[in-house]
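Ticket #4471: complex job returned nothing on first submit. Input attached below:
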Amino acid sequence: MASTQVNPTRMELSRQKKKLVTATKGHKLLKDKRDELMRQFLDLVRENMALRERVEAGIREANKNFVVAKAGMSEETLHTAMMAPKQGVYLETGKKNIMSVDIPVFEYKTRTADENDIYSYGFAFTSSDLDDAVKSLADILPDMLKLAETEKACQLMSAEIEKTRRRVNALEHVIIPRAQANIKYITMKLDENERSTQIRLMKVKDMMLEEAHHYKERQAAAVVE
Amino acid sequence: MYKIAVIGAYDSIYGFAALGLDTFPVSDVQEGEDTLKTLASGEYAVIYITEALAAELAHEISKYREQVLPAIIQIPGVSGNTGAGVAGVKKSVEQAVGSDIIFSNN
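Support reply: We reran it on our side without changes. The output follows.
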């Protein structure tokens, strides 16, 4: 039953019918969008998980190396060594559109031409463990950037999927049934009105005929005779 | 042209300075929150944050979740992996699918 009051008129009926057609079409399109988004998302999220596991393992290794390096030299030396980094990493960001979701694409550039120019200290006062530690961290940097890109994409897409899913559900379970109920209600009401008009006309006709020919009086007379 | 930032306790992040990332050592939560806000509104496209600090700033981080930039990514700190990063990925799946159907068994 229609929960909101609609006018049982022909105009309202055609409006509701149009609404139903649009809603059905929109529902189909959104459902397709949701399915495709989901497909892309599942691929992406698997990649995300693999990258994350790799990066976390890499950072764990690097941290271990740093602890070893720290153990082998004084804290001041370590601080001094890390104080003035030679290398710089910059990002060029672009955008990629996956099913109307804008996801960022990162391209990274280093300040010095040589990407491996990462040792910001003279080698005289630092241990070789520190070199190893810095190297191990540098090795996972590309993966870390890839992770940033993928993880952001996953977050954005999951938000979009959630929104699309809500829309699909709203159309499927609220808008479309409501339009159908309204159409049914109006058709029934109109039919009912038509019938009642018909009956009223028949009744009026009877009364007019009665008025003109006096059937009942004649019948009564015939019975008396 | 964007830059990359790393926030967390000094011991967990000082190595990244050598690679050319900008490191922002913070010692308490309030400082971390202020730093994160400044960085997120500035020229940083990617902000790596240690899981330990991220756990304290979860509310702040969730604000940036649906923005294109910056990408705030959790990394394990020197004290070990808390699993918060993986939990973040699972949360994405949960949000998209409704329940975690991919990684629930491992």
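Chain A has a mean pLDDT of 88. Closing as resolved unless it happens again.
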